[in-house]
Amino acid sequence: MDNLLRHLPSTHELLQQLHNVEVSHNVKVDACRYALEKARRIIQTTQQIPDLATLLLWTHERLEAQQQPSLRPVINASGVIIHTNLGRAPLSDEAITEMQAVGRYYNNLEYDIALGQRGQRQKHIDDILCELSGAEASLVVNNNAAAVYLVLSALASGHEIIISRGELVEIGGGFRIPDVMLQSGAILVEVGTTNRTHLKDYRSAITERTVAIMRVHTSNFKQIGFVKQVDLADVTALAHQHRLIMIDDLGSGTFIDTSQFGLSHEPMIQESITAGVDVILFSGDKLLGGPQAGIVLGKRELIERMSQHPLMRALRPDKTTLVGLARTLQHYRDGDALQKIPIWQMISMSLETIKARAMHWQSVVGGDVVLSDSTVGGGSLPTDTLPTWALRLSVPQLDDFAARLRQFPHPVIARIQDQAIWFDPRTVFPQQDQDLIAAIQYARGI
Ligand SMILES: *Cc1c(COP(=O)(O)O)cnc(C)c1O
To answer: Are both 223 and 305 inside the same structural domain?
Structure first.
């Protein structure tokens, strides 16, 4: 074996072959080392010595890969629509166009064009948020975790806030609502039991130190069996009888009723407003289908207190976020959200459309088209699935196959299940079909 390795060129020799490639010396050295390392591994497993052309091919592959940004598009064939690891909600074309323009040029982020003087960042989004939700006022921050933190810091620091034990949620990535609450300086008062909380539990926990009651939507898990949660309108009425602030962390939040797609009913933003909640929080990039943001809606006086809190400066959203969010919201106002916002296109996609796509893939790469399930993801509707048609490929060495799919310039993320690899058309954009097929052929070809 050592004899075989001796047939490989040295890094220096390989480097000389790259003399007219215009990248830095260090990047070239890295590419040569990468190719030689790959060659060594191949020699060890196959006793075959790759020729110089192959080594150079690998070197160039590595150089190309190094030019790519670390954060880049992937093809999501997993069937999980709001995939937190894959960037959550893809944005509408309209949102992207406006984010590009505002990103490329100067803009009126904090400038009042009519008056020719300083303006307000939040003004660009406030009207449409209030119009859609019926809220008095709004505030946008970096994400919903930031919204929770800001709301509690501004309204409940040093005071007691009551929350049901059934709602002390870990939202993912190890982040727990009770930890965020403690950071804010609010004093958490837990009531009820894991499975059941009654109105009287809230009532008997109210003291003169209490400032608020908080409901947290148990987004990413579901309790079944002997379970009781108090109706939002009833807790809100209780809070108001005692002059307390009612806060509702919706998690995802939606303007569209999910039950029309055969899913459970995800709590809607309008419903919290109707229930009389004082402060409502939700994410921009879950079922709203926009960029990462945390949205706070509520009573003007409370929103005002939050917007003047020093933390606001640390949590304020970027210009591209604001314009992308505003354009996403406009889809709801214009009534074209299902057609234009990718996550709603995917949720509402017909089975016939999905099947036709899967059959098209199959006609090129083979495999079986079979009934399967897509999920909404993003910590919403945890037990619900949407029926789908997936392409199922049975291949030897599944993990290697999946790894090769990920090596493509647009890496393909598929699902491994029942000794096969599954591709769900629901979450693959039609314009990615070519790339997906090419990746499958590449993964097959080796
Ligand atoms: C997802 C979620 C959050 C956090 O929202 P991000 O936008 O991810 O910061 C907070 N609360 C609940 C209930 C959630 O589901």
So the answer is: yes
Q: Is the dihedral of CA 425, 427, 430, 431 positive or negative?
A: negative
Domain with residue 328: its CATH number is: 3.40.640.10
Q: What's the chain's average pLDDT?
A: 94
Q: Which residues contact 293 (CB under 8 A, 6 or more apart)?
A: 140, 141, 142, 143, 283, 284, 285, 317, 321, 325
The pair of three-digit structure tokens given for residue 288, joined into one six-digit string: 């709203």
User: Domain check: are 51 and 79 in the same one?
Assistant: no
CA of 257 to the centre of ligand 1 (A): 19
Q: Whose CA is nearest to atom 8 of ligand 1?
A: 144
Say if ligand 1 is within 6 A of residue 249 CB. Answer: yes
Does ligand 1 have an atom closer than 6 angstroms to the CB of 214? no
Residue 247 Cβ < 6 Å to ligand 1: no
Nearest partner of 73 among 440, 428, 441, judged by Cα: 428
Task: Determine the Cα–Cα distance for residues 90 and 429; give it in Å rounded to an integer.
Answer: 10
Distance CA 119, CA 106 (A): 14
Task: Determine the pLDDT at residue 446.
Answer: 55
Which of 175, 238, 183 lies closest to 210 in space, CA to CA?
A: 238
Task: Give me 209's structure tokens.
Answer: 């130190």
pTM (predicted TM-score): 0.90
Instruction: Please give the sequence-ordered ranges of beta strands (E in DSSP) within 227-285, or none if there are none.
Output: 245-251, 279-283
In which band, very low, low, confident or very high, does the pLDDT at 173 lie, cut at 50, 70 and 90?
confident
Is there a contact between 365 and 440 (Cβ–Cβ < 8 Å)?
Answer: yes
Which is nearest to 144 in space by CA: 226, 73, 248, 52? 248
